[in-house]
């Protein structure tokens, strides 16, 4: 179905290998100009997809993209320069380098939740590394997908970058082709399907997956500040963020104080009544009826198991609306604590001893992100050393995504491989080891046959 497209890109990828850095910089500049010129169109498309507030589109999609693309343009010469490495004594006289070559033809499969940042973000790295790209946006954010298809077509040659729209059947058809690299962002379940398909062609893969990101508030935290930051990180994009705090662990002696701070801030930001919350324009909608129903069922399941709503809980499935919701007394066996929530529901649990939290996290799949609000160096150190997660943020949430110098990616169930900055460039490159022997030099004579007994005695 997409064989012709693949073959054209394969042919063009050989041409791209010959291009100097200036040409790659030109492609990046063109992309930057395109994003910059169409900011309003992107804001509009995301509003149509799930009523994403303009401020959130700017701060969590467009500005991070512009930062990433400018960073890539600044650093690209250095990233592309072959890295000189040393050699052991017996290879004395050789010169050794790591050369980052393009992988070739790459497939980028994106989810719907940040339909701009998670399509164009990896694409920046792929272009910087000298690849061709087939970009498959999610069909669920259909306005953004259509806009991307139109703008990419107007900006790049088809054999360089092409957007393939459509549903799962198109993704599955693409996955049959022998791409040199597949960069997938989405759920852990579909990540496994992608990896299985990639194995048939031995395509290398990067999997940016999901999961439950725990957030800890200990006794030493600044409670009001922690509440403000957690509310932003959780309810941004209506909770449909891969690194959103999934659930909270609060030390029991500050629990009621923290809940009071949380409630006060929620009332101030989203309002005190269901009417006020529904009318609030600073809060996005759920992407589809299917997902709203899923969240409603998760909430009902928790309430049936003695969960108690502390804030929100109002739902209108036909309008894809679920208010920012905080719930406590959750049963750890309920769906809310077993599945990734991926919506505006925040379960809160108490803990007594910090080691309980460490144990709880280590008993479960490795999270994509882990957050702690604390001034206790001992707790921070213990969490850093004794748990495994894609990333760790101390006294904030989500913002590690915005630092292009940090690798961003999951571990175990939350994924494999990294993106952003040099880490993204290297993801889309093959690190080729090059050894150059000085002309006429020979290794120690003993390695060449005949293997005489005299040589063995040395
Ligand atoms: P999803 O896995 O349902 O879909 C992702 C992409 O895969 C979409 O383009 C979709 O069309 C395609 N797809 C779906 N089913 C498929 C199948 N059977 N075969 C082939 N392709 C298929 O994920 P989603 O609902 O779009 O996004 C939400 C998930 O993504 C959450 O789990 C979230 O945590 C995760 N996520 C991770 C990151 C990250 O950076 N790690 C970022 C955003 C979202």
TrEMBL record:
<comment type="similarity">
    <text>Belongs to the aldehyde dehydrogenase family.</text>
</comment>
<dbReference type="Pfam" id="PF00171">
    <property type="entry name" value="Aldedh"/>
</dbReference>
<dbReference type="InterPro" id="IPR016163">
    <property type="entry name" value="Ald_DH_C"/>
</dbReference>
<feature type="active site">
    <location>
        <position position="208"/>
    </location>
</feature>
<keyword id="KW-0560">Oxidoreductase</keyword>
<dbReference type="InterPro" id="IPR016160">
    <property type="entry name" value="Ald_DH_CS_CYS"/>
</dbReference>
<dbReference type="InterPro" id="IPR015590">
    <property type="entry name" value="Aldehyde_DH_dom"/>
</dbReference>
<dbReference type="InterPro" id="IPR016162">
    <property type="entry name" value="Ald_DH_N"/>
</dbReference>
<feature type="domain" description="Aldehyde dehydrogenase">
    <location>
        <begin position="15"/>
        <end position="432"/>
    </location>
</feature>
<dbReference type="InterPro" id="IPR029510">
    <property type="entry name" value="Ald_DH_CS_GLU"/>
</dbReference>
<protein>
    <recommendedName>
        <fullName>Aldehyde dehydrogenase</fullName>
    </recommendedName>
</protein>
<dbReference type="InterPro" id="IPR016161">
    <property type="entry name" value="Ald_DH/histidinol_DH"/>
</dbReference>
<dbReference type="InterPro" id="IPR012394">
    <property type="entry name" value="Aldehyde_DH_NAD(P)"/>
</dbReference>
